[in-house]
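Practice problem: predict the structure.
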Amino acid sequence: MLSAAGPKVPAGAPICARPGTKPIFVSPMGEPFRTEPGQSYPSAAWFAGADKNKDGMLTRDEFVADALRFFDTLDTNKDGRLTPDEVGRYEAVIAPETSIYSARPDGFFERSRGEQDRGAMADSRDYGGPMGAGRYAWLNVPEPVAAADQDVDRVVTRDEFATSAAGIFERLDVQNHGAMRLSDFPRTPQQIAIEGPCRTPKKRKGGDQEWFG
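Answer:
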């Protein structure tokens, strides 16, 4: 979850959310990042944390390592397994956005339909539109943590989570480059729905920000 102690957003990240809208991003493996109105879309914060060597590129190994970091925060008893209680805590406390019935303004995502970028959300047709975490993510997976349960035994192991992360990286790396910039990823349905004209932040003396269109 994004906090004041979290990774710094890359300098110059554009501000695209309309005033009054709280942007939410759910990472490919289900970690929620939230910002206040007027701040950069939070996918930038996730990318900054996952890009461990700070070269502006996210490799498969970095992607999987970041997924396992998140797994370890969910694995409260540190046994290498996410049991139904731990998954339930994720859904109810950490990422309530995974509920397909979570509240949202009427018609909020209608603008995003038919506007998905570069095909990464094409599987939204499987559900009749983005649902659950898929409304705030690059792939329409309503509950990414439970979706990593490959043998469907209601327990997600650390190995299953890593394997799922590697597979999701391959789905997102549509150019098969083995590494991606933040700009290579598509926009999420929420991001499409709330975007206004982007502004680039510039620091003024005293630490305040001014904006340029």
